[in-house]
Amino acid sequence: MTSPHTTPAGAGSVAVDHPLLEVEDLFVEFHTRDGVASAINGVSFTLEERETLAILGESGSGKSVTAQAIMGILDMPPAKIPRGQIRYRGNDLLTMADKSRRAIRGPEISMIFQDALSSLNPVFPVGWQIAEMFRKHRGMNRRDSLDEAVRLMERVQIPAAKERVRSYPHQFSGGMRQRIMIAMAIALNPRVLIADEPTTALDVTVQAQIMALLQEIQDEEGMGLILITHDLGVVADVADRIAVMYAGRIVESSDVLPLYAKPAHPYTKGLIESIPQLEDKGKELFAIKGLPPSLLRMPPACKFHPRCTRAVEVCRTDDPELREVEPGRFSRCHFAEEVLGE
């Protein structure tokens, strides 16, 4: 399958031989009592320095499982990675010794988890939890590590950081807890940051603040950012490229502006049409009919065909490849050119 390499917007010189991060033909399955659930089915993408790649899709499309596979935090078993490669600067993380991979997880590749309240330990002060990164990975003593925690809290714009460093998670608002999660994720200056639904359950104003903060940190550090979300509005102004996932596969990959202007896959088109518009006030909101397929019983051929209004016989019998339909534009649809022309 063709691997759509991403190209950063306005980035400086990058390694020619190896992207910063490359996921190639990745498969992840979960062995359950009811059978084998196919969560990821041949996902491929790359990430370069200073690039923001947004991975979009409904719940259950495989976005978070992909992130967990990159981080190496899948529970195995029941999870299993039967095939694929995840290369960081050319080195395959999946064949790497556990000790070597632990040295990369945190200092080189870090992740912001989607539920800040449940991700933070409720019985320890937030400063202690941030400082743990420095104690474990840098060998700092308690005082120095706590000073670093204060510095990071100030960097992510938490007011009165010196006083609040000893506060507990429940004493912060949702937006402030998310800032603490960001502080923990960037503590060791990673080169790749994965943000999994970083604005979930936050109001629109706080969402904008969190996204602006992530952009500011990325600009300062030059890291690659993978933004995982189901909200197309969140990524419109921050992403360089978008990969749309459905049923554990990438169904479209493109630069941001062309994808929003003219999607090349019916699923992407449905997602964009479901975004509420001011001029649609009082009208019924558009929704993609049906539900995502069961991971235990995937439909044959095109996985989207049971919900697709364009589906014909070939969609039910022949599985489309992810192919380049325009320069830099990839789509997994038999009729991508027709969708583009609509």
Which whole number gives the mean pLDDT? 87
Separation, N- and C-terminal Cα atoms: 27 Å
* Shape call: globular
Helix content: 25-40%
Output the helix-strand order: EEEHEEHEHHHHHEHEHEEHHHEEH
Topology:
Elements: E1 21-32, E2 35-47, E3 52-56, H1 63-71, E4 79-88, E5 91-92, H2 98-104, E6 109-112, H3 116-119, H4 126-138, H5 142-155, H6 161-164, H7 174-186, E7 192-196, H8 204-221, E8 224-229, H9 232-235, E9 241-246, E10 249-255, H10 256-261, H11 266-273, H12 313-317, E11 323-326, E12 329-331, H13 336-341
Helix pairs in contact: 4-5, 4-7, 5-7, 7-8
Report on the structure:
This protein is of the alpha/beta class and 342 residues long. 32% of the residues lie in helices and 23% in strands. It has helices spanning 63-71, 98-104, 116-119, 126-138, 142-155, 161-164, 174-186, 204-221, 232-235, 256-261, 266-273, 313-317, 336-341; strands spanning 21-32, 35-47, 52-56, 79-88, 91-92, 109-112, 192-196, 224-229, 241-246, 249-255, 323-326, 329-331. The protein has an eight-stranded mixed beta sheet, with helices on both faces. Strands 2-1-4-5 form a four-stranded antiparallel beta sheet, covered by helices on one side. α4 packs across α5, α4 (126-138) runs parallel beside α7 (174-186) and α5 (142-155) crosses α7. It is globular.
Write a compact overview of the structure shown.
The protein has helices at residues 63-71, 98-104, 116-119, 126-138, 142-155, 161-164, 174-186, 204-221, 232-235, 256-261, 266-273, 313-317, 336-341; strands at residues 21-32, 35-47, 52-56, 79-88, 91-92, 109-112, 192-196, 224-229, 241-246, 249-255, 323-326, 329-331.
